Amino acid sequence: AWSSSKPPLLRFLHTCYADFLPEAAGAVADYIPELGKADPAHFGISLATLDGHVYEVGDTKVPFTIQSMSKPFVFALALDTLGAERVESVIGVEPSGDPFNSIRLNAENHPFNAMVNAGAIACSGLLHADKGDGAFEFIRQALGRFAGRELDVDEAVYASESATGDRNRAIGYLLRTNSVITENVPAVLDVYFRQCSILVTARDTAVMAATLANRGINPLTEEQVVTPYAIARTLSVMTSSGMYDYAGEWIYRVGIPAKSGVGGGILAALPARLGLGSYSPKLDKHGNSVRGIKVCETLSAHYDLHMLNRS
Ligand code: GLN
């Protein structure tokens, strides 16, 4: 039992952990074969506040691949590196209402937004056009600044996704025939597959989310990683599209900008308040972590965190 000397927030996270540990619903993603090896029992919750406190419960040090949670960070980097005009000329900011891997483009033959695969591949393409062969290293180092430590790649997951990623390749070619990307498609996909294979922990993702919530300043290192301008745009797209075809439901029920990944992570960033990172690899039909959703719903309700219910 938890003694009352524990901070109330930590006690609350322990209650969440215990309540949702028995949750059995969902399935580990296996369309990327290597992801199927994840331990479905793993469950970690971490919360970082903007004054630099990090609270952790459960498997918060277990590494897993960032997958689609890389998308908001790479979008923010693209905005700062290439300028909003360039990015907006080829990537929309409208929710798609489609699953993350949809091949459908908008009426202009552009990706709907940067949170679905098509938009994220377009972002990787923009950075590749600017940085050439250095694009992935540029992304890896920047994501490390969001996390406050150097991040590595899971080579096995990278190889597994690269070997089976034909749908994303098809999206890449579709983007090129519509001049959204002008680069060599395999080179762009290589950047995208590698960025999705970056290893993080629940703790890392809480700090990364807290950096989003803190106008781009990492609350632990105090480094300004991207501009407040890029952060506001990124949080906007996370709000409308971060949870794919569950995004409307999510913002209605939880009310915190968030992003999920098929590795089992969810990160949520409440501006001027906190960053949350959760890890539990069993996913629902939208590709969102089942336990992660429950943690966010419960936290939001308990602390009255809905972003449209502020005083
Ligand atoms: N790398 C995964 C893919 O492109 C990312 C998807 C996700 O996390 N939703 O399919």
UniProtKB/TrEMBL annotation:
The EC number(s) this enzyme carries: 3.5.1.2
Domain of life according to the entry: Bacteria
Reaction catalyzed: L-glutamine + H2O = L-glutamate + NH4(+)
GO molecular function terms attached to this record: glutaminase activity
Alphabetical UniProt keywords: Acetylation, Hydrolase
GO biological processes: glutamate biosynthetic process; L-glutamine catabolic process
Annotated substrate binding sites: S68, N117, E161, N168, Y192, Y244, V262
Family, as annotated: Belongs to the glutaminase family.
Quaternary assembly: Homotetramer.
UniProt-recorded name of the protein: Glutaminase
Native organism: Bradyrhizobium pachyrhizi
Phylogenetic lineage: Bacteria, Pseudomonadati, Pseudomonadota, Alphaproteobacteria, Hyphomicrobiales
